[in-house]
Amino acid sequence: MTALGQIARGLRTFASDIAEGFFEITHNGFALLGLAVAFAVITLTARPDLRQAGEEELMGWLQSRQEALTGLQNERDARERATATDPRALPKSQAAVAYWLSRKYRVAPEPVSALVAEAWDVGKRNSLDPTLILAIMAIESSFNPFAQSAVGAQGLMQVMTQVHSDKYQGFGGHLAAFDPVANLRVGVKVLQDCIARAGSIEGGLRFYVGAANVEDDGGYTAKVLAEHSRLQQVAAGRNVPILTPVPAAPVAPAPARAAAAPAATEKVALLSQS
What pLDDT, on the 0 to 100 scale, is given for residue 273? Predict the structure, then answer.
């Protein structure tokens, strides 16, 4: 064999040895990687606390990356805090009421849908027409959950929070007056007792607005009942035109509410007597 042939043979042998060594290293490396993965899976299965800690660490890293990219602090529970429901998920009658109120009072249909669903649920449990509850919210606050009257009535249903602070303890305190659902539930309880005390819806509404002991309630009862009638028709599937929204609370003229200031506490104070 010539010198050139020997050199070529030597190079082939060298290349073959290199390839075989690389294969062995790679094969062993994959084997070790497989063992490591299997060990990690077994460990995480046997130790749920380690798995949870790892998931939290990973989510924290991903959240930090997201905040760095967007410049916004992420709050994964923000959606849970929001009072909103897809109106398409509601029964037909409730969805019709939600869309109608949304157009009339120029508020988003999603939060109104949540209130409509809650009114239906609370109304059923308290033997009250849900459209009456919604009519009171419309006249009292025009669906502004942060509304406050001159005499201190607050929230969607304009409950006298200072008088009824104890009723909010189950919701975390008096600041829950500005939580739409909490305000609705407390307001419904007040309304229910007002109606029971007066013996009629009309009389109950006069107690609710604090005008039970005065001649003029500023047209409050008539406005609520008119809106109630319209909402009943909407829920029944009728085409009800959108009229000009009524003013936000306070609805009654200043003299009527001022004259009824002591009586205004009846709107919520009657529960303290029960």
Answer: 43
